[in-house]
Amino acid sequence: MLAGKNRGVFVEMGRTRLTIAVTAPGAPGRVVEKIADMALESGREKIREFILSNGAAAKARFASGRASVYPPSRFFHRHSADTPVKLREAGYFEEVLSGQFGVDFAANAVSVISAVDGMAFDPARSLAAQRELLFCGAPLAELKSLQEELVQCGLVPESMEIGTLSMLGALVSILRQSGRKGPALLLEMAPASTGLYIVSPDKVDLCRMIPIGLDSMLPALAGELGMKDEKSARGILYSNTFDFTEMGQTLLARLIKEIKASTGFYEVQTGQTIGSVFLHLLPTGLEWVRQCLPRALGMENMRIDLAAWLAASGIRIDPAVEAVAEKHLGVLSLLLDYEGRAES
């Protein structure tokens, strides 16, 4: 039995944590009554109990809601069509995805969306207005596994999308709403890779998956601490016990080099300077990276006036909800509603 439509439930599931937002009955997604961060290691039953007790009808076995996930092999590719008429050609998207980006249609769920407004490509709309595109998706097997994980946590997704997509939409919305003119950088942090995205108030400008992640710090950390192997270094790095701010730039050197290669090329090509960066999916034990990495890149942490942005988006946080922070942007981005939203 599913929960009734009493409350809205929104869940962002990262690699190690779930962030859950519950909205009040009535207009869904408008008044946030609760926000909770829960570690996956705390156990599915504990997470399930929270979701059901706050977002489900009495005696319901499951709640229903909107979810975002981060499949390890997700992909985002930026594409500009040479001419609008190309977009009408049969097999054009398949040719670009398989030929230029090596995407296997049979094994992946794929969405084609506008890089400007985030709406799914629609041949009935102006083709000229849809020349700037994003190809995004993930392996079907990974999406199925993540959906099953959500169900085990007590949530049957009404919709499930790649969290990167809602984050990009939120950041473009924030840049527009705040009147900022320049681009910003979004970095999605993971052990083996880093998702790099440059957004401007007009559109998503660049997408790149860097095959270097937080684990790239392990050899340097082992060397700095005189350890014999990276396994011991891993235990210390992710232990949430040590602050490596002082040696941070040394530890992050490989990742910094790769990020600068992409941002530097973009800045030379466009003549624009990226002044701020938003770090997303950073593990709890590595908050010191939030200080070191922006400084090494010559940027500031992106400052977001959440209250102003939420109000402009028609979303209100109940006064009883404490400590709403920028780390909750991922789940709050799921509350944005717009026609044509692309979902998996």
Can you describe this structure in just a few lines?
With 344 residues, the chain is an alpha/beta fold.
Under the CATH scheme, which architecture of the largest domain would be assigned?
2-Layer Sandwich
* Poorly predicted segments: 338-344
Question: Any idea what the radius of gyration is?
Answer: 20 Å
Strand order of the largest sheet: 8-4-1-2-3-14
Q: What is the total number of structural domains?
A: 2
Helix content: 25-40%
Count every beta strand, where a strand is a DSSP E run of 2 or more residues: 14
Q: Number of DSSP helices?
A: 11
Mean pLDDT: 90
The level 1 CATH classification of the largest domain is: Alpha Beta
CATH superfamily of the largest domain: ATPase, nucleotide binding domain
Spatial gap, N to C terminus: 24 Å
Structure overview:
- The chain folds into two domains: 8-71 and 142-169 and 304-335, 2-Layer Sandwich (Nucleotidyltransferase, domain 5); 180-303, 2-Layer Sandwich (Nucleotidyltransferase, domain 5).
- It has eleven helices and 14 strands.
- The strands form three sheets. It has a six-stranded mixed sheet with strand order 8-4-1-2-3-14, with helices on both faces. Strands 11-10-9-12-13 form a five-stranded mixed sheet, with helices on both faces.
- Mean pLDDT is 90; it is low at 338-344.
- It has 344 residues and is of the alpha/beta class.
